[in-house]
Write a structure and sequence with these properties.
Phosphoenolpyruvate carboxylase, two-stranded antiparallel sheet, Pyrv/PenolPyrv_kinase-like_dom, alpha/beta, six-stranded parallel β-sheet, about 60% helix
């Protein structure tokens, strides 16, 4: 995570440089270990590697870090980094003569192994892996506004032409680059400028020839890419050292990505940049796009944008440029990859038809994919798994694509456009429904353990929890994980019923005859196998105060009736009942439409349904325990009613922390001082009974709830 600063304040520029140095040292040590098996100890090649490793190790040791990042510390680091950069190597090719000499002294078997090691080394340069920096488009706007006084917002269509003209004028000026040193980096406050300066220092002092991918999230305008180009040249980064890549993941970006690229292609500066660099890099995000417009619709838009990119490259005579297509995807249907075999997954996000068209146009295409989180364990966790994964990728790359156009889905562009647009529209409508945000945020984040290095969204402060009012306030990974826990994969299924009902005959025919369409429907099959409309309905009922009033009305136990009434009152005040039932009816109607058209026969397995039922019972028991919290005078704006609301949202750790402060378990024993009268009873037990009968059982039940969530996750085939 040392290179992804999008929305992060915990990654400093020195973290990025320290991690980059660690990658360099890892790469050098790996090459040395590989060569040491076949070369003598006194080999000049090994001797040079030892010098480089020693220098990089010293540079890493001098790196700034918390508590050692004052100006004097940074100056000391600069002295080591720059003073020993030649020893540490700045270009992988600087070792090529030593490599040639070494291989000439070996027999054929050793030469082969040395060639393999050298090939792996040169593929990545002076790093164990290629690196991608990442930030948000708004951060680019901020630095350009500050340094070029471009005030208009490029997101406003009426102002876009003006700002693109202004950035082209700035590129025309060809002003000499400003110098960058660690003093200026230490002083820089604007995040985009700081990241670009960090890259400049890496390219000057760590690896001068391996380009860095500069990924821009939420790219919505060609101005963003042109402004990034200006910024890189402003800090002296050569065109061949930076791969500027827009990330298309929002509905708007996927639908209008060709317009964004067209705005850049019209600029002679962008065309010059592409020719100097030799590559056009594009990245597509499935997790965010899928949660906003549905997984199926997002994939269709990604493929359409790829084909529109092909048309643009032809029109602007850029077919001699290599096209890099980077796809982000991860755990099963949650992040955009295929739910079944790895071979099907590659076929799904890298369709043969698209590959065939690029081949016909003589455009070199490099396809890249991210194996994020648990993908690393499931695909590369053992040598056998890793070998199988690599072999499958190799088989995919050698496939035949000539017959790809025979797939009937491509002969029905009207069906494809309307079918997937219907899904996108219906899912987008659901996303804007306040009931959908209410369902995800009611207690969803509390159902799962922390995912990734970023917070899910909800930040506790004192005794309050921020309620999300829109899906965009929740990150993609927890968003999808919560849907999984609610028992309904809305980001895959919503809108599919409406779309299938509009084209019932074509839907049924293409699901049988089109390989491409059938691969897409695999997502729906997986989602239906782990979704149950009854499980979702149970969640809605659980949050409905009417459910608890009905129980109170039918209870013969006065104490239990009082508990139900308290829960009903607490849920009434939380207000979920206002929006959840209409939202549920929207989902249910689409599900009925799907079942009327598609006789799939898929449903959630019995054991998984039981898990959801047990968890509902656990939640109810936690809530009933909450009604037994003794009355206490409000303190620091914390009342019994407020604690009940926290527990209704399953913010159990926070609630228990507050309860422990309000009802201490031990009061403490007074010292054996004389208080000048006969000694009274010393009661040091505090609120032991409350802890034993309410608080500790609540904690145990919450732990059980989280264990059930893990079981549900594994049942869905999601890991990590």
């Amino acid at each position: 995570m040392g290179f992804d600063t999008d929305g992060r304040s915990d990654i400093h520029w020195w973290d990025t440089i320290a991690i980059r140095l660690a990658l360099k040292e890892t790469q050098l040590r790996r090459l040395k270990a590989q060569l040491a098996k076949f070369l003598p100890t006194d080999s000049p090649f090994l001797a040079r590697l030892r010098v480089a490793i020693d220098a990089v190790s010293a540079q890493r040791s001098a790196s700034p870090r918390p508590g050692r990042n004052a100006a004097k510390d940074v100056a000391a680091f600069a002295a080591v980094l720059i003073g020993r950069r030649d020893e540490a190597l700045l270009d992988a090719d600087a070792l090529s003569d030593l490599y040639q000499t070494a291989r000439e002294t070996c027999d054929a078997a050793a030469r082969r192994e040395i060639d393999i090691a050298w090939s792996g080394f040169t593929a990545h340069g002076l790093s164990a892996a290629h690196i991608h920096t990442r930030l948000n488009a708004t951060q680019i706007y901020n630095v350009v506004r500050h340094r070029l006084s471009i005030e208009d917002d490029p997101a406003i269509p009426s102002r876009r032409r003006k700002v693109i003209g202004q950035i082209n004028e700035a590129l025309n000026e060809k002003a000499p680059p400003v110098p960058v040193d660690f003093g200026s980096l230490l002083m820089e406050q604007i995040s985009a400028a700081r990241l670009m300066m960090t890259m400049a220092q890496i390219l000057k002092h760590i690896d001068q020839t391996t380009p860095i991918r500069f990924l821009i999230a939420e790219t919505e305008s060609g101005f963003t890419l042109l402004a990034t180009l200006w910024l890189s040249r402003h800090f002296g980064i050569r065109d061949d050292q930076i791969q500027i890549s827009p990330l298309f993941e929002t509905q708007s970006a996927l639908e209008h990505g060709d317009t964004i690229l067209e705005e850049c292609f019209r600029s002679p500066h962008w065309r010059d940049y592409l020719r100097n660099n030799g590559r056009l890099c594009l990245q597509f995000g499935y997790s965010d796009s899928g949660r906003y417009i549905g997984q199926l619709a997002a994939t269709n838009l990604v493929e359409r944008l790829r084909l529109k990119t092909l048309e643009l490259m032809r029109r602007h005579e850029l077919t001699d440029i290599e096209l890099v297509l980077f796809d982000t995807h991860g755990e099963s249907i949650g992040r955009g990859s295929h739910p079944f075999s790895f071979q099907q997954r590659l076929e799904y996000f890298s369709p043969a038809y698209t590959a065939h068209l690029f081949k016909e146009a003589n455009i070199r295409v490099r396809e890249e994919a991210a194996f994020q989180g648990a993908d690393g364990y499931t695909l590369f966790g053992t040598p056998e798994l890793a070998t199988s994964t690599i072999v499958t990728i190799a088989e995919h790359l050698s496939r035949e694509t000539q017959t790809a156009s025979s797939d009937p889905i491509y002969a029905n562009p009207e069906f494809s456009f309307d079918f997937f647009s219907t899904i996108a529209l219906d899912m987008a409508t659901l996303v804007e429904d306040p009931g959908y945000a209410g369902m995800l945020g009611a207690f969803g984040p509390a159902l799962i353990d922390k995912s990734g290095s970023r917070p899910s969204a909800r930040q506790a402060d004192g005794a309050s929890v921020t309620r999300i009012s829109h899906v965009n306030q929740l990150r993609a990974i927890p968003n999808n994980a919560i849907l999984e826990q609610l028992g309904w994969w809305a980001n895959v299924l919503q809108g599919l019923g409406s779309a299938a009902a509009r084209h019932a005959d074509s839907f049924e025919r293409l699901s049988r005859t089109s390989r491409r369409f059938d691969l897409a429907l695999d997502f729906a099959r997986q989602a239906l196998s782990h979704s149950d409309i009854g499980a979702l309905r149970a969640v809605i009922d659980l949050l409905d105060p009417g459910t608890w009033l009905d129980r109170a009305a039918n209870s013969d136990n006065e104490s239990r009736r009082s508990q139900y009434m308290r829960l009903a009152k607490g849920l009434e005040e939380l207000g979920f009942w206002r929006h959840l039932p209409p939202m549920y009816r929207h989902v249910q109607a689409d599900h009925i439409s799907l079942n009327s058209v598609w006789s799939h026969g898929l449903h959630m397995a019995r054991d998984e349904r039981i898990l959801h039922a047990i968890r509902h019972a656990v939640i109810e028991e936690i809530w009933l325990l909450a009604t037994r919290i003794p009355y206490f005078s409000p303190r620091n704006n914390i009342s019994r009613e407020r604690l009940l609301q926290l527990i209704l949202q399953l913010e159990i750790p926070l609630a228990l922390k507050k309860l422990g402060e309000i009802f201490p378990q031990y009061l403490g024993t007074p010292s054996e001082l004389s208080f000048h009268e006969p000694q009274g009873a010393r009661d040091d037990q505090g609120f032991m009974r409350e802890h034993e009968t309410i608080f500790r059982p609540m904690a145990r039940l919450f732990d059980l709830l989280r264990e059930i969530s893990t079981a549900v996750m594994h049942a869905n085939g999601a890991f990590g």
